[in-house]
Each structure stands twice: as structure tokens, then as C-alpha cells.
Amino acid sequence: MVFEEILARSNGANSCWADLAVGTPASPDYKTPQDFDPTSAKSREEIIDRIITAALAKDVRLLGTADYNLGLDERGIWLDELGKRAKGRGVSVYPGVRLLLEDGLDVLALFEPGRPQEEIDKFLADLGLSGNARFYRSNKPVQIALSPREVVARVRSAQGMVLIIYNDALKEHPAVVSDPWVWGAILAGGPQELVPEDEAVLSGKRKGFERRLPLARLAGSFAQRPEDVGTKRVSIKLGAHNLEGLRIALLDSRSKVRFPHEIEKRSYSRLLGARWEGGFLDGLAIHFSPSFNAMIGGRGTGKTTVIETLRYALDESPKTDRNRENHEQIMRDVFLPGSKISLLVESHEPRPKRYLIERIYPFEPVVRDADTGEKLKVNPKDVFRAEIFGNKEIYEISKQQDFQVNLLERLCEKDLVALEAQERFLIDKLEEQNQEIATLAEELSRRDAELAKLSAAEEKLSRFLEMDMPSKIDEKRKLEQEAHVFERGEAVLADIKKMLAGLISETSARLKSLQEEEKAPLNPQLLDEYTSSLVEFVGEFERSVQGLVEGLQGTEEKHRGFHEQWQKLYNEGEERFQESLRSLQERFPGVDVNGYITLEKEVMRLRERKAERDTVASRLSMRRDERRALLGQVQELRASRFEMLKRQADGWNAELSGKIHVELLARGDPKRVAAELRHFMPRLNKEDAIRIVSEEQFSFAELARRSRAGDRNGVAELLGLSPEELVPSFDEETLCRMEMVAIPPEVLIKLNLGTDKDPNYRDVSHLSDGQRCTAILGILLLESPYPLIVDQPEEDLDNAFIVEEIAERLRDQMDKRQFLVATHNANIPVLGDAAQIMALEADVEHGYLSEGRYGYLDSPEIKQTVEKILEGGRQAFEIRKQKYGL
Question: What does each C-alpha distance from 330 to 105, 323, 333 come to in angstroms?
Fold first, then answer.
């Protein structure tokens, strides 16, 4: 079965536009063309086609007719022909009749699509309106003589539906408004035009007008010409386009009926269809509802297998070891090697796009462009995401602090990605600086150790100076100084040679990279000219550098010539020095003239090293200043991230209405912070580490600052340890890493065990398993652009909470994201108002989904199936008895 066929299947309740009050030429005041001939079949067809075309132009798929008293006999029977022709074009028509009652009450009776007008005429006659006495000569409709309550009862007996046309007369007839068999009110304007008194009447909150369920607010154009059809409309979510489907929708109008201004265009990712080949689910195919899908069925019918194979296709890993083992067991024993799952999905960012994901066990998934079939070099997670929780998985992860942080992060992911990219850039720069700072610090330490000899060498040299040694060996010393000049000159030339070679190599590499870069298709000529100009410049640059290289070679030749000339002079001077040395030994027996010369050279070298040491110290100081600035930027980004998550938490708290409270602490989870501290101080035990990081004054930045300053007492005070218990010291690289430690904020999720007026919040870490799962699932059900797939969440939840919170969350969010829930609990699909219920079955070898076993609760077969299969079903159905007729 191809996906086109799968998507052609019904997928439960869907929203469609409705105009429930349109006129037909049966009304005396209908504005027909001048050449209209009611006896002409062609004229009748043209009017009907124009009505249907006008509806389709405004995407209206549900029509209700609202002719007063169905018109005079000579105007013809229109409803049968309109309903038949509309059905052929995908529009459902509820044949109806508008009735004028006492005191100006105005009602509309709608009947089952396809109901013959002959029967509706008979119904009107039973109300006292004979065929020739329905209008006055002025064409005004004749009023029904029966009481409003009696008319409602007659419509009910005729298996019709009563809607009231809202006007001031209703305020004098509370019995009509409060009648449970009146399903909705057609408003002259939109709901935004209602005054508080009207709101109180429609909601059943005004004294005397009490209702168990509020009246649905509806719209009708009362079109008296074809082009006006659909000018006023509402969106209604229903499964079957019949009277029962409409009744269920109107009784749950808060979530199923929307005026145009109330509809938020939401973009979210969704599963469209799936099919399985091989294994236990061989032949199974599902067309998913874009809102709430519920899988029911006895144990062993494949619900868990569906969820785990969806997880497998999307390459989403289980979040706990226990679930990983269960997942792998299912894949081995139920999916089997060679089995294949194919998913058609729609990703919402940056614009809606469809992908086909295929995976054969045990191979890697394949992602294709659904339109072209082209195989893409991406992973499913690169194009589509879903939040999947297997059986007991919510319980397992409810004890993990990291997961609780992820709960917040997933809902502001786009903004976090930008912040994390900036932070990653800064961290990379810090990592580079860490290495350079550590190298400079090590070099500075080495040079300081070397320079420690300078003072002693200078003291010894001073004693030689007292012997007037310099004047005795002045020529020798100057010759050595000249030798040092040649040594340094040679080193300078070597450095320049290396630099020039690097310039040529690096410039050539960059130019080659630029030339190989793919040309932009929009302005190739401009880019070619630009690249050519760069190539020309780089060529000139390389020629200039080559000229410098040649000049350097000449200078090196000169250097060697000068050095050879000087070497001859040095040799001559060495002979004179030896002669002076013999004379000096005679005057100062035991004096070590060579030692003096060596010492003088050492002092000279150390003094040069001191200048170099000062340069290293300056560079180190500059890098540390730059690093402090970078660390400040990182801290600002982390503060922005915290504020972003805090705003998300505050939004949750407002949406959760006091039932669940989320608190964010910047200090982070003490256990995690303690683990980081023990990474730097392995000898610390866990208890001491947790004690230290729990102190308000503790931070890694402060620990690094005091350590770098050599303030051991300050470090001991910060850690609450004695100086003897401290590690000897931290090296520079460790201190740099200490300053960069990133600690996610601590998330405290609390459940209100009290009431709204007297709240009693308890942290999830101190709650029972069921209460903990209640809090986590309550948050998971909040708005997100990704499908939420959960296997049997009721196993760890309190049933009362399912009724009071989970079902309501599902109803509120189903138009904003997609849900797929496998369950044995009747409250979840019934009270949660699942748009599609799928009742899986199984024999010994296969799980399957039969025709008629999937759909919405307005299907009699689905109602019977739900009541028969689900545990505890009776209680849930009793609560919704009026709504679902169970």
C-alpha cells in the first residue's frame, strides 16, 4: 500500500469550515436572477451549483439550510437536490428549517444529511403549518402556535437538532436556553461582540439559565444569494459529517468550535503515515491524525511494538538503561531482522516539508525527499524530531536532574542554539588561550628559576671588578662581545628566513583555497574579476617576498664574509690575550681569568634573559586580561541562557495554574557541582564536596582567583578545610579549566498537594512514584512543536489526576501539537477527546488494525469498541454520557 492510499483513509476527527444557516430559492425573499425559472431544471442546477461553488471557494464543507417554513409549494423542493449535488462535490448539507416562535424567538431545526424534504414537510405539518398556510401574503413567515419547549420536544422526536438564533427575546425564555436538547446559538456577529450579560446566558451561568454544558457559539450567513454563502462561518472539528458528529462537536464546543479570529495558525512537526513490512506488525498501515491519536487494544496486540518501532525508525535512543533493554528485546523478538518500517513525516522548520524515512532492522535509517524520492545524506533527527517515552520511561527519568533541565531547554531550543553557538566560539578561543597561557606561565616560571642565579653571579663579578680585571682583559672581553653580536645577527637572519618561507607557503595555501571555493551562481563574472585581482596582487606579493629572499641570501653571504674577516682579528687578539694572561697570572697567582670571562658572559646572558622574561610576563598579563574579558562574555551568555529558561519556567507556572510549580536555581544541582569539584580535587569525599558547594560563597571562579593569587588561607576558608588538607597547588591549565566550568541550573519541580486557595507544594524528589510522574507528564504535555509519543502513561499516575489534569491538557494542546498515546485507561482517549482512536487486534502471529476499528467517537462502532476494550471504561463514559450518548 503506497502512502497516497494510506493518506486517503479516514484519520478521525478533523476541522472544517461550516456555514450552518444558508437560504435557498425556497424562501420567498431569495434573490434569484431575473431570468430564473423555478420550473426549469437547468435554472435550478445553476443556482445549486453556484451555492456549492461559493461554499468551496471559502473552503466551507458543512452547510445548514435555514429557510423559514421551507417556502411555498410552487417554489419547489430544493433540499434533496442541493444535498445530493453537494455530496458529489465534497460538501455535506444538513437540511434544515427556520421557525418563528412566540415573542420573537427564532430557532433552526437541522436534520440528518440526506433526510428527504418530504419528511421535513411532514414535520412542519405536525407543528401546525400546512403546505398552504406557512406564509402571510406579505411573505412573512407564520409563527408556530406551540410553546417553545414543545417545539424543541417535537424536533427531538423527529430526530433533529435545535439551534437558537441569538436575539434579545431569548433573555425572556430561560427555559429554552437551559433546555439540554438545544445544542447551540447562531450569533448575528462574532463572539467578540457579546456583552457580559450575553456571555452569562450562553455559558449557562446566569440565574435561571443554568446549563450543564454551555451553548455552542456558531455562525451562519443566512445567505439570500449564492455569493453570500460562507461570508460568516465557523470551524468545527468532527469525525463523521452526520447529525451525531455535529452534536458531539457542539457539546464540546470549547475545543471543537472556532471562529476565524480564534484560530491560531500553528506550525508543528507531525507524523503523517506509517506502514510496517515483516515481523509482528506486517501489513499494518496507519494514517495519523494531526492532533490526538490514541491506541487501544488488549495486551499483546502490538501497541508497544508500534511505539518502539517508531522510535527505531526515527533513530531516537531510549533514555534509560531499562528502556534500552526493553527496546532491544522488542526489536529482536517482535520486529525481527529484515523487517521494515516506513514513515511519512512533515517537518515544520523552516517551512513545512515532507520526508520519507525508511529503516530495515538492523541497518541504519534512510531519509528521502518525499516529493522527489531523492536519498538525502542526513539522519532522521536532522529533519524530524519526536519526544518518545516508552513504558515506565517517564518514571525512570523523573529522578534525573539532567532530564528536568532538558524539559525547559527543548521549548526554547532555537534561541538556545544561537547562544550556544556564541558560547562555543568563545570557549574555543578560551581553549586556545588556555594552552598559550599555560605555555607562557611555564616559560615564565622556568625563566624565574633561571634568573634566580643572577644576583649571585653579579656579586661574584663585583669581586673580579675590584681587581681591575676588566682593564686587564678589556680586549678579550670586547672580542667576546663582538662574537655575541655575530651570533645574534646570525639568529636574526635565520628567523627572517623562516618567516619568509612561511609567508610564501601560507599565502599560496589561502589563495588556492579561494580559487577552489565554489562560485556563487548569481554573479560569476564579478567574482572572477575579484578573484583575478587577488591572484594578481598575491603574485606581486610573492615576487616581492622572493626578492626579499634573494636579498637575504646576499646578506647571508656578506655576513659570512664579515665573520671571516672578524675571525682573523679574533685569532690575533686571542694570541695577545694569552700573553696578557701569563703576565696577569704572575701578578695574581691562582686567579681564574677564564672563569671571570665566563662569568661576565653568563651575567650578560642572564640580563638579556631578564628583559625577555619581562616580555613574557607582559604577554602573559595581556593574555590573562583578554581571557578575563572573554570569560565575562561567556558569563553574560550563560546569564542570558538562565534568564531565557527562567522566562520559560515562569510561563509554565502561569499555564499550569498552580497545580505544578517550576523553580530555577542558578547555583546548579549540588550533586553535579560536587562531582565537578571532585574532578579537580579527587581526594575529597562526596559528602565534603556537597557540603562545600552548598555554601553560598562557593564558586569555581572564586576558587581559581584565590588559588592563582597564592592565597592558601583564602582557599582553605572558601572550602572549609585546613591548609594542611589542601592540594599543594593547581597548575595554570587546571585553573583555566576551573574558570570555564559550566553548571546547568538546578530545576525544582513541585506538585501542589493542597488546593488553589491553600497550596502545599512538594518537591518531586520527596514524592511518591505516581506523584513524581504526574508532575513530569503534566509538563511534557505543555506546548511543543514536536509530536509527543507515550506508551501507557497511566501505569504510574493517579486516576483522579488523569481525569482532572492529563485529559484537560490533551484537549487544550491537541490543536498545537500531535500526540500518540497507547493506553488501557478509558479516561485518556474519552475525556481527552482523542481525534482518532485505533483499536489494535492480534492473532498468534500478527497485530493488525481492521477497517472500522479506527476513527472518532461519533462512530457507533468506535464507541462500542472503546467501551468493550478499555479498563474502567464505564466510569469515564458515565462522566461523558450526555456528550457521547454511551
Answer: 63, 10, 5
